[in-house]
Amino acid sequence: MNQYPKWKYGLVLIAIFIGLIYSVPNFFGESPAVQIMPTKASDKLDLSILATIESTLKEASLPFDGIIQEPNGIKVKFSNPDGQVKAKDALQNALGGNYVIALNLVSKSPTWLSKIGAIPMYLGLDLRGGVHFLLQVDMKAAAEKAAESYLNDFRMTLRKERISYIGASRLNEIVKLQFDSQEELEKAKKLIKVNYPDLMVNESPSGKDKALDIGMSEMGKKKIQEFALKQNLQTLHNRINELGVAEPIIQQQGLDRIVVQLPGVQDTAKAKEILGRTATLEIRLVDEDKTDIATLESAQKGNTPFGDDLFKDRDGRAILVKKNVLLTGDRITDAGPGVDQQSGRSVVHVTLDGRGSNIFKQVTRENVGKRLAILLIEKGQTEVVTAPVIQQEIGGGRVQISGMNSPQEATDISLLLRAGALAAPMQIIEERTVGPSMGEENIKRGIHSTLWGFAAISVMMIFYYMVFGGVSIFALGVNLLLLVALLSILQATLTLPGLAAIALALGMAIDANVLINERIREELRNGNTPQASIHAGYDRAFDTILDSNVTTLIAGLALFMFGTGPIKGFAVVHVLGILTSMFSAILVSRALVNILYGYRRKIDKLSIGQIYRPHQD
Questions:
Q1: Where in this chain does the record put each Protein export membrane protein SecD/SecF C-terminal domain (predicted)?
Q2: Which region, left, alpha or beta, applies to residue 417 given φ > 0 means left and ψ of -120 to 50 means alpha?
Q3: Do residues 103 and 266 lie in contact, with contact meaning Cβ atoms separated by under 8 Å?
Q4: In 3D, which of 606, 607, 601 has the Cα closest to residue 3?
Q5: What is the CA radius of gyration of the chain?
Q6: Which ranges in 385-435 belong to alpha helices (H)?
Q7: How many CB atoms neighbour CB 519 within 10 A?
Q8: Segments in 244-381 forming alpha helices (H)
Q9: Does residue 576 contact residue 560 with C-beta atoms inside 8 Å?
Q10: HSE on the CB side for 187, CA within 13 Å?
Q11: Which of these, 81, 304, 328, 517, is most buried using a 10 Å CB contact count?
Q12: Cβ of 408: how many Cβ atoms within 10 Å?
């Protein structure tokens, strides 16, 4: 007799039950929703705004299907996109700049499933819709920015070591230091070579003065470019995390490009604005000696005084600031919107790191009574946000930036500064938008192809192997169920290649059942009893099934380890499909065969199709 111990039947039943529970949420679809999050990802959501949200939607006559509370935000579900868009505008006006309001999609599955962790798998851009960006990193700007940073470091280092110099300037990627004596030049040359081994230091004639030309080696340029790409990748990760996008794809493409895919994002204009902006801060001193009208008018005509840059403030007034950058946005550790208690206007509160705090404290101590210009650099345009007079030394690393036009601007600038400055500007060179309807069409086609393939396999197996073919199809259905459940439990991202991998997994999984059925037929041809044939068929087919699946598993693991993007997604589904197919083909089908035939002591015939016995002479 062929019987499993009871615990094996229990294991199969538990696996099928878990598969049902965790795969069901994927079939409910998604609802349009409005997502409300604090402007700072580290802040906890004040749940008292629930009443504000409900009253706002009620006053605007916007019915909603439910409110989902999450650790980092709230999602309000709507029955149609029209109500979703109207609700976003109403909530934005009601909640102000302290919250990020974005359009999103949420699952329609029941709340009780979510409470036990049964949530749908993530869908990729091609299935869910969203936006795809290809960004080009400006490597030349990265090298120039690094040279500007070196220029500021050289000034501070030479002052600290009491090495006198008469000029420091930068031309593209070359920093020039001028000295009035050869002795001071040699001291500086030795100091820079020791502290900056990646730089090339050369003496160059500069009239009667002595000068050093300091540039980056090829190795140094390569390091800076690699750093710029990594920094931009990290900054994009931070910005997208602030937007609350689930499972974004942010990866390097080539030497100077970055691919960004945001599945489910409907507010593409907002996403493009946040990703494309390159906001950072610079703090410089206003040139107090050149504030007269004549000098400013001359500067506006193109005659900018040496050592100064001409910018305009938010009221359009021209201001001359010194070229020397005292502090940059790289020293910012946190930023958040706020309100000035005296004026009531929107401001941005900035926190500096230890070194930035010390620099700012020294600058304010040495320049009491002078004006400090805070510059916002965005999309290559520099604007003086505010230029207050330094009243006293400011310590503690807390800086308030006033001059914001609206709470929303304060919120956006805070997000950009908090997420980090880009190491180099980026330009969006390709943009593709996949609408939810197109993603839904891709899902339908993928499901239809899988179902048609399943149906074709079912007809062939039942026709050829009769009852044993039906057992194989049941095991194949369990395989599909477990595969979908595993993808949901692991929260894997399913893409079109992943759907192709599911269809392929079904085709490969049936091979194991074909091997088992043919082994049973072979035992019957050799004159064994039906019970002995079933036992021998499963036992002798196991080694072959294991060998074939292990070799395929190795190929899938190689694709996962060395592939990227869609290839990796295909590999994940492929590998999981192999594991579930072995479980279903060996355990599930054997359990069902044992139930059908295992309890019978005498069986005259197995319903496994036509068996041709060898010809006897």
A1: 426-595
A2: alpha
A3: yes
A4: 601
A5: 34
A6: 407-419
A7: 21
A8: 268-276, 293-300, 354-366
A9: no
A10: 16
A11: 517
A12: 14
pTM of the model: 0.62
Instruction: Map tokens 């080696």 to a residue.
Output: 217
φ/ψ (deg, to 5) at 367: -130, 35
Backbone angles phi, psi at 328, to 5 degrees: -125, 170
CA distance 569 to 293: 64
Which portions of the chain are predicted below pLDDT 70?
1, 39-47, 71-72, 96-98, 205-209, 238-239, 241-247, 265-281, 329-330, 378-380, 403-404, 409, 412-413, 415-423, 435-439, 565, 610-617
Amino acid at residue number 554: I
Instruction: State the CB neighbour count (10 A cutoff) for residue 558.
Output: 11
Percent helix, strand and coil across the chain, each to the nearest 5: 50, 25, 25
Joined together, the tokens standing for residue 76 give: 């309000």
Single-letter code of the amino acid located at 455: A
Q: What is the DSSP string of 471-502?
A: HHHHHHHHHHHHHHHHHHHTTPEE-HHHHHHH
Burial class (CB in 10 A: 0-12, 13-18, 19+), 228: buried
Q: Are 41 and 335 in contact (CB under 8 A)?
A: no
Query: pLDDT at position 556, please?
Result: 87
Tokens 């059942």 found at = 513
Q: Residue 316: its pLDDT value, please?
A: 78
**In the chain, what's the furthest Cα-to-Cα distance?**
120
What φ, ψ does residue 199 adopt, rounded to 5°? -100, 150
Structure tokens at 388: 């207050």
The amino acid occupying position 403 is G
pLDDT at 419: 55
Q: What is the four-CA torsion angle of 200, 201, 204, 206, rounded to 10 degrees? A: 120
pLDDT of residue 307: 79
Partnered with residue 70 across adjacent β-strands are: 73
Could you tell me if 399 and 303 are in contact, meaning their C-beta atoms sit under 8 angstroms apart? no
pLDDT at 18: 92
Backbone region of residue 463 per phi and psi (left: phi > 0; alpha: psi in -120 to 50; beta: other values):
alpha
| 335 φ, ψ (degrees, to nearest 5) | -155, 140
Contacts of 33 (CB under 8 A, 6+ apart): 68, 75, 76, 77, 78, 84, 103, 104, 105, 106
